[in-house]
Automatic annotation (TrEMBL):
Signal peptide annotation: none
Record lineage: Bacteria, Pseudomonadati, Pseudomonadota, Betaproteobacteria, Nitrosomonadales
Keywords: FAD, Flavoprotein, Oxidoreductase
Cofactor(s) the protein needs: FAD
Organism this protein belongs to: Nitrosomonas oligotropha
Protein name per its UniProtKB record: NADH dehydrogenase
């Protein structure tokens, strides 16, 4: 029996499993001949793009029945050692017990995590919406503010980072805080970013709409500066100024999961494994990478996949297809994702939808908000737990080009 091991049950890991199972089924191969196993701490998909919203504990979707429907095994635990020479991994269970699992091909799809620099006070006093537990901790903190007396410290939020996540967090925060503290609270929200403009990576076309939305939401910006220190009641900026706040949310930078460092292969500066067009790690041909662990070309023009749900779905589906094709002597199909779109949430009734790597605005206002709502509540959730829907979703994820 051959064995495909997929580490991670996020967007990339889930679609890698579904795509691998689909090709196995299409080739008439039995699960007893080619086994597919997903290892993850929990059998659920965290809807990570929604963790900036209220009630983050609800932003999960079960996937065990989905895997059962397509004969994918689920192994509960966390991989902490990858031995690529021996083609095995060590798994730590929830009980602390260790066990090993061998593979013939491995798909590394363990995602990414927020990067927090060594800033005094950040580890102790900073919050984030990076992982589910982080978002839940922030939500508990925000709700606990209602037990404090009104003050600038209580009523002010500082968001470090003026990129996609930082903007979504900041524009959600005024209405979220008013629901907790009451309409009379003097709420202030600041975005602090070292760049000279907001949303620097998105280009100039959507920027006027973003700036207008920030003004209308009452979000203030401090650009060209960073946070140099924070304590329980304030954030000190690199220009020496200080903002009174008990809530500093870090949203500035991502890094691939540290497991990538265990693979003896080239990584980019974010820790992602450099892969070929088939998503294979050149130095270790038995390993493929997908999602936020893969530094992959999307087209012939030199664009690279970003750490985003949009790219993770396609990368996962492509890696799952190719790792299975590799074992079944089926021609591999190069990953490509020529089109790129963004839909940026800008508060309760606003958003902006762009298309292309130059981020040309296609929709804004109510229409873009309706699109964002559909993406967040439908498109990014797992398919229904039956073979037909699962295989259709896998093929859509592998071939759709927005």
């Amino acid at each position: 029996m051959k064995h495909i091991l997929i580490i991670g049950a996020g967007f990339a890991g889930m679609y890698a499993a579904l795509s691998a199972a689909r090709l196995r089924n299409e080739q008439g191969v039995s699960p007893d001949t080619l086994a597919i196993t997903v290892v993850a701490p929990e059998p659920r998909l965290v809807i990570r793009p929604r963790l900036y919203e209220r009630a983050p504990e609800t932003m999960v979707a079960p996937i065990l029945e989905l895997f059962d429907a397509v004969d994918v095994r689920y192994e509960q635990g966390k991989v902490d050692v990858i031995d690529s020479a021996q083609k095995s991994v060590e798994i730590v269970g929830s009980d602390g017990m260790r066990r090993s699992l061998s593979y013939d091909r491995l798909v590394l799809a363990v995602g990414s995590q927020g990067f927090k620099p060594d800033i005094p006070g950040l580890a102790k006093y900073g919050f984030s919406v990076d992982q589910l537990e982080d978002a839940i901790a922030l939500d508990h903190h925000l709700n606990s503010l209602a037990n404090r007396l009104s003050s600038a410290t209580r009523d002010t939020v500082v968001v470090a980072g003026g990129g996609f996540t930082g903007i979504e967090v900041a524009t959600e925060m005024p209405s979220r805080l008013r629901a907790i503290l009451g309409a009379e609270a003097n709420i202030r929200v600041f975005i602090v970013d070292r760049n000279e403009v907001i949303a620097s990576a998105m280009g100039s076309d959507p920027r006027p709409l973003i700036e207008q939305a920030l003004r209308e939401a009452g979000v203030e910006t401090r650009l060209g500066v960073g946070i140099s220190a924070l304590d329980e009641n304030s954030a000190t900026l690199s220009d020496g100024q200080s903002i009174e706040s008990a809530t500093v949310i870090w949203a500035a930078g991502m890094r691939a999961n540290p497991l990538t460092a265990q693979i003896p292969a080239e990584c980019d500066r974010s820790g992602r494994l450099v892969v070929d067009r088939n998503l294979r790690v050149a130095e270790v041909p038995t390993i493929f990478a997908a999602g936020d662990t893969a530094y992959a070309l999307t087209d012939e023009l030199g664009h690279r996949a970003l750490m985003s749900c949009q790219h993770s779905n396609r990368l996962g589906a492509s890696a799952g297809f190719n790792v299975t094709a590799d074992l079944l002597d089926v021609p591999l199909e190069p990953y490509q994702q020529k089109n790129y779109v963004t839909c940026l949430d800008l508060g309760p009734s606003d958003a902006v939808f762009t298309r292309g790597w130059d981020a040309k605005v296609e929709l804004s206002g109510d229409k873009a908000k309706a699109m964002k709502r559909e993406i967040n509540t439908q498109w990014i959730y797992p398919p229904r737990a039956n073979r037909e829907d699962a295989f259709k979703a896998a093929e859509w994820a592998r071939l759709v080009d927005y």
